[in-house]
Amino acid sequence: MSVPNVDPSHQPNASAKEATRPSPATEGLDKSGERVREMFRQIAPRYDVMNHLLSLNIDKWWRRKAVQTLKIQGDDPILDLCCGTGDLAIAIADAAGADVQVIGSDFCHAMLEIARVKEAKRTRDTAGGSGRHTIPFLEADSMAMPFDDDSFQCVTVAFGLRNIANTDQGLSEMARVCKPGGQVLVLEFSQPTLPVLKQAYNFYFRHVLPRIGQWMARNDKSAYEYLPESVGKFPCGDALAGRMRDVGLQHVTFRPLTLGVATIYVGEKPGGKTDHAEMAAHREREALVAT
Ligand SMILES: C[S@@+](CC[C@H](N)C(=O)[O-])C[C@H]1O[C@@H](n2cnc3c(N)ncnc32)[C@H](O)[C@@H]1O
């Protein structure tokens, strides 16, 4: 098993500092780290209940599909960033081999505390007998992560990329810490394309969800008004797949779930064994043609 290096003194580099400006796709919406962190701090105690209730539990199925999309091989570690209360990290760790170290990271202390309690309960329930590693939940900004380049076989994010102040910086960081040949996976809300469904969805998102959300979460900054706004302004489908290609990922594909309410995007970091094999085969073919 290999464990990645964590540099606790890691400071955002110049481009990450620069990137605290919102990306063009989110202009007009305050996604500053302070605002987003404070919003999640306020809703943390009720985040899980709200999530399952407002999505009618479909969010659990979406995360399961995301885990099934991963091609976990060998014992290289896996990173789930913007992990919040830890559901995706825990689902990945349960599905991966006992030798695979999964790490969760997020910049909201209150969300991580809940993830840690869940993970401690799981360890207690199995009396440490599941054989798998305990997940460390680390406090880190996804725009400047304290991990070396090429550290993880898979880097995932569920419903988090949309909240990062600069989408491209978040994607670049994901690609940076991913191993060559590894997978970068994004699970994110998207806009349904069927006109009738789109209208119903927009009505639910704009009028029903914020009221229930605000009432239940007693959140004075209105996180559940932020949700439809941030989804409406966030790229989806081909647009987000293009942004993943722009940071250097290859073979990017996406799969809409539940009529497009959410989408799984997956891309590969170039330089893996298959690339080398393909390049060798290509060189061989060229050599044959030349002779
Ligand atoms: C909607 S929650 C998603 C949580 C979890 N991944 C899930 O599937 O439920 C978004 C999370 O992203 C985190 N987040 C947003 N921007 C971040 C950043 N720049 N760095 C680290 N975490 C961030 C928030 O603190 C929050 O926990």
TrEMBL record:
EC number: 2.1.1.163
CDD domains reported for this sequence: AdoMet_MTases
Pfam hit, one: Ubie_methyltran
Reaction equations catalysed: a 2-demethylmenaquinol + S-adenosyl-L-methionine = a menaquinol + S-adenosyl-L-homocysteine + H(+)
Superkingdom of origin organism: Bacteria
InterPro entries recorded: SAM-dependent_MTases_sf (IPR029063), UbiE/COQ5_MeTrFase (IPR004033), UbiE/COQ5_MeTrFase_CS (IPR023576)
GO biological process, one term: methylation
Keywords recorded for this protein, A-Z: Menaquinone biosynthesis, Methyltransferase, S-adenosyl-L-methionine, Transferase
GO molecular-function term, one example from the UniProt record: demethylmenaquinone methyltransferase activity
Residues engaged in binding S-adenosyl-L-methionine: T85, D106, D141, S142
Disordered, as annotated region: 1-34
Pathway(s) annotated for this protein in UniProt: Quinol/quinone metabolism; menaquinone biosynthesis; menaquinol from 1,4-dihydroxy-2-naphthoate: step 2/2
Root EC class: transferase
PANTHER family, per database record: 2-METHOXY-6-POLYPRENYL-1,4-BENZOQUINOL METHYLASE, MITOCHONDRIAL (PTHR43591:SF24), METHYLTRANSFERASE (PTHR43591)
Family: Belongs to the class I-like SAM-binding methyltransferase superfamily. MenG/UbiE family.
Function: Methyltransferase required for the conversion of demethylmenaquinol (DMKH2) to menaquinol (MKH2).
Protein name: Demethylmenaquinone methyltransferase
Species this chain originates from: Rhodopirellula europaea 6C
